[in-house]
Design brief:
about 625 residues, alpha/beta, Molybdopterin biosynthesis moea protein, domain 2, Molybdopterin biosynthesis moeA protein, domain 3, six-stranded mixed sheet, 15 helices, 35 strands, binds adenosine monophosphate, binds magnesium ion
C-alpha cells in the first residue's frame, strides 16, 4: 500500500482500514524492505552476561589448549624407548626421579633414560618424557623404583599442547550464538569478555481499558493482560531485551505519549490490541504521527492475525499485534521474530517440522494462510494432530509427543490422579474434547484412555453400554450433579431439585443457564424441565465451569453443574444425582508401563484422598 493510499484511508471513515489486505509474503517483503533489518552494533559483554548473544566478530585463540603436553592418566612419565623390550617375562626397572607432578605443578627435573617421574592426571609432561605408563601397569620395587612389564608407545596417554584448541585458530566465528559450550571454549582460552551484537531493546505496550496486570485483582468485565507477559518473554527468547511498559487505556493522547516515549529509548516497539475496527482502537492512527515512512501493512491475509499492523518509524520497527493472545503470538512468531533475530544477529529459528494427520475436518477461508494450534499424539500409524482451542489458553506450542494421552471429557479430578506421574517425569497430555469425542479417539486407537460420563437411557446406566470392541471400562469416580444458585437466593434455599425447578419456572424473571446437547448434564436438565423451555434455555455453554460463572456473575439465576465446581465458586448447591466419570481404556495399550502407572495411581491412597477432599467420590 502506498503512503498516499494509507493517508486517504485514514482520512476517511474507519471502515476502510482493511481495504488493502496484503498477502503474508507481500507484507513480510515490504516490511523488511522498509527496514533493512541488520545486526545492531557490537558491545563488550562479560562471558556470564553473553549467553544467548551472537558474537559480533571472530574470536581467535590466543593460547593453546591444553597449554602444555598433559598426562591423561595417573601414572609415570617415561621415555618410551626405555620400555621397547618390556614384557611380562622381561620387566624393565626404572628409577624414580625426586619429584611428583601433581596438577598445577611445573616439573623441574628431566626424565633421563632409565628413570620415571610420578605424574597425576592433568599434570604437565616433564622434559625428556614422551609417554605415560598407567600406575596399574607398574609394580613398586623397593623405595625409589618401579618395574614395568609392557611396552609404551610414544605419546601414550598424552594430550599434546594445542590438541583441543590451537593458538591462532579462529575459535568462534562472528554470528555464533553463545551457549554453554561456547562459554566453555572461551573460558578455556582465558577470554573473559567478548564483542557481541547488542541485544535489541524492545518496548512492549499492551492497550485496552479492560486489562489488569497479573497479580492484581480482576475487576468485573476485566481480563488479565496476557500479551504483555508473553510478548516480552518471546522477545527475550529470541535475542531481544524486552522492556514491558504496562497496559495503556484506550485513550489516544495517553497512548500517543506512551508510544513516543517508548520509541525514543528503544530499538523497536511492539504493541498489542487496538488495531481492529472496534471503537477505541486508536494505536494505528497514532503511528502515522510518529515518523516516516509509517504504516507498511495494516491487514494481512493470515488467520489468526488479520488485523496485524506493521510500521517503520525513524528506522525502527513499530508493530501492533492483534489483541487476541493466540493471534498476537502467531503473528509475532511468524512475522516479527525473523526481524528481531536479524537485529540481534541470530540465525533464523529452526522449528521442528513433523507430519501428522488431522482427525477432524478443518474449514479454512479461501485466500488466507491459516495456522492452527494442535496437540500431537501418537496414532496407530503415525502422528495425529488434534486442533486445540483458539482462546488465550492456546499459547503454548509443544512438539514433543507425550507419554500418556488422555482424550475425552475433562474433570479437575483428573489432574489429581496424574500428579504422581508428572512427578515421576512422565508427560501426560489430556485433551478435552468431550465424552463422545474421546470415545471416538479411543476407538481409533489415538489415545490410551478416554474419560467419559455417558448416560444410557435404555439401560439407565453409565458408560459401559457405550464401549465398543477393543475398549474396556476402568472405574473412575462419582461426581454429584446438582442445581447451583447464588447463596441467599430465597427462591432456591432449602428446596430439593424438583421443587427448585418448579420455583424457577413459576418466576417469569428467573433465568436459567443450560448445557450443550450431548452433555451428560443436559440429559438431567431436560428430564427435570419435562418439556419446559424457560428463559435462558438456549444459553448452552460447554462446561461445568461456564455454568457456575454464569450464575455467579448474575447472567443466570440457576443451572446445573457438579458439586466441586459449585463449591469452588461459593455457590449454593442442591444435589440431584451422581454421575459416573469412568475411563474407556484402549485394550491394545493396556500393557504400556505408563498406562499401568496411571491405573496404579488411580487406585492409590494418595489419589483417592485427593479426590475425596476435592469433592469427588472414588468408585
Ligand atoms: P482489540 O484489538 O484491542 O480490539 O483486542 C481484541 C481482543 O483481544 C479483545 O477481546 C481484547 O480484550 C483482547 N486483548 C487485547 N489485548 C490483550 C492483552 N494484552 N491480553 C489479553 N487479551 C487482550
Ligand atoms: Mg483493545
Amino acid at each position: 500500500m502506498s503512503q498516499n493510499q494509507q493517508t486517504r484511508s485514514r482520512g476517511s471513515v474507519d471502515q476502510d482500514q482493511f481495504l488493502t489486505i496484503l498477502s503474508r509474503e507481500d507484507a513480510i517483503e515490504r516490511f523488511q524492505a522498509a527496514l533493512f533489518p541488520r545486526p545492531l552494533p557490537g558491545e563488550l559483554r562479560r562471558l556470564a552476561d553473553a549467553l544467548g548473544c551472537a558474537l559480533a566478530e571472530d574470536v581467535v585463540a590466543r593460547i593453546d589448549v591444553p597449554p602444555f603436553d598433559r598426562s591423561n592418566v595417573d601414572g609415570f612419565a617415561v621415555r618410551s624407548a626405555d620400555l621397547a623390550r618390556a614384557a611380562e617375562t622381561s620387566p624393565v626397572r626404572l628409577v624414580l626421579n625426586d619429584e611428583v607432578i601433581a596438577c598445577g605443578f611445573a616439573p623441574s627435573r628431566p626424565v633421563l633414560s632409565g628413570t620415571a617421574t610420578p605424574i597425576a592426571t592433568g599434570g604437565p609432561l616433564p622434559r625428556g618424557a614422551d609417554a605415560i605408563v598407567m600406575v596399574e601397569h607398574t609394580q613398586p620395587t623397593g623405595n625409589r623404583s618401579i618395574e614395568v612389564r609392557r611396552a609404551a608407545s610414544p605419546g601414550q596417554f598424552v594430550s599434546y599442547a594445542g590438541s583441543d584448541i590451537a593458538r591462532g585458530e579462529a575459535l568462534l566465528r562472528a554470528g555464533t550464538v553463545i551457549g554453554s559450550r561456547e562459554v566453555g571454549m572461551l573460558a578455556a582460552c582465558g577470554i573473559a569478555q567478548v564483542q557481541v551484537v547488542r541485544k535489541p531493546r524492545v518496548a512492549v505496550l499492551s492497550t485496552g481499558d479492560e486489562l489488569v496486570e497479573p497479580g492484581q485483582a480482576l475487576r468485573p468485565a476485566a481480563i488479565y493482560d496476557t500479551n504483555g507477559a508473553i510478548v516480552a518473554a518471546a522477545i527475550d527468547e529470541n535475542g531481544g531485551e524486552a522492556n514491558f511498559l504496562g497496559a495503556v487505556a484506550d485513550n489516544e493522547a495517553a497512548l500517543e505519549a506512551a508510544m513516543r516515549q517508548a520509541l525514543s529509548g528503544h530499538d523497536m516497539l511492539v504493541l498489542s490490541g487496538g488495531t481492529s475496527k472496534g471503537a477505541g482502537d486508536v494505536s494505528h492512527r497514532i503511528i502515522a504521527r510518529l515518523g516516516p515512512p509509517g504504516i507498511i501493512a495494516h491487514g494481512v491475509a493470515l488467520k489468526p492475525g488479520k488485523p496485524l499492523c506493521l510500521a517503520v518509524c525513524e528506522n525502527k520497527p513499530v508493530v501492533i499485534l492483534p489483541g487476541f493472545p493466540t493471534s498476537a503470538m502467531f503473528t509475532f512468531h511468524d512475522m516479527i521474530v525473523p526481524v528481531l533475530r536479524r537485529m540481534a544477529g541470530l540465525p533464523p529459528r529452526t522449528d521442528a517440522k513433523v507430519t501428522a494427520k488431522l482427525p477432524v475436518r478443518i474449514a479454512s477461508e479461501l485466500g488466507r494462510i491459516e495456522f492452527v494450534m494442535v496437540s500431537l499424539v501418537e496414532g496407530a500409524d503415525g502422528l495425529i494432530a488434534y486442533p486445540s482451542g483458539k482462546g488465550s489458553g492456546a499459547i503454548t506450542p509443544h512438539v514433543r509427543v507425550p507419554d500418556l494421552v488422555i482424550v475425552g471429557s475433562h474433570c479437575t479430578g483428573l489432574d489429581l490422579v496424574t500428579a504422581p506421574l508428572a512427578r515421576a517425569g512422565l508427560t501426560v497430555r489430556s485433551i478435552a474434547v468431550g465424552s463422545l469425542g474421546g470415545l471416538a479417539a479411543a476407538k481409533r486407537g489415538e489415545c490410551d484412555l478416554a474419560p467419559i460420563h455417558l448416560f444410557d437411557e435404555k439401560t439407565e446406566t453409565y458408560n459401559t453400554p457405550h464401549l465398543g470392541e477393543g475398549l474396556e471400562l476402568v472405574p473412575g469416580w462419582r461426581r454429584m450433579q446438582g442445581i447451583v444458585f447464588r447463596k441467599g437466593d430465597k427462591r432456591f434455599e432449602g428446596l430439593d431439585a424438583e421443587a427448585a425447578v418448579r420455583a424457577a419456572l413459576a418466576d417469569q424473571g428467573c433465568i436459567m443457564v443450560n448445557r450443550n446437547q450431548g452433555a451428560g448434564t443436559r440429559i438431567l436438565i431436560d428430564r427435570l424441565l419435562g418439556g419446559a423451555r424457560p428463559e435462558g434455555y438456549w444459553n448452552q455453554p460447554r462446561s461445568h465451569n461456564a455454568v457456575a460463572a454464569a450464575v455467579a456473575q448474575c447472567r443466570a439465576d440457576w443451572g446445573m453443574t457438579i458439586a466441586p465446581v459449585a463449591h469452588a465458586s461459593d455457590l449454593g448447591f442442591i444435589p440431584l444425582a451422581e454421575e459416573h466419570y469412568d475411563f474407556a481404556l484402549v485394550t491394545a495399550r493396556k500393557n504400556r508401563p505408563v498406562v499401568k502407572a496411571f491405573l496404579d495411581a488411580l487406585v492409590s491412597d494418595e489419589a483417592r484422598a485427593a479426590l475425596v477432599s476435592a469433592g469427588f467420590r472414588p468408585a
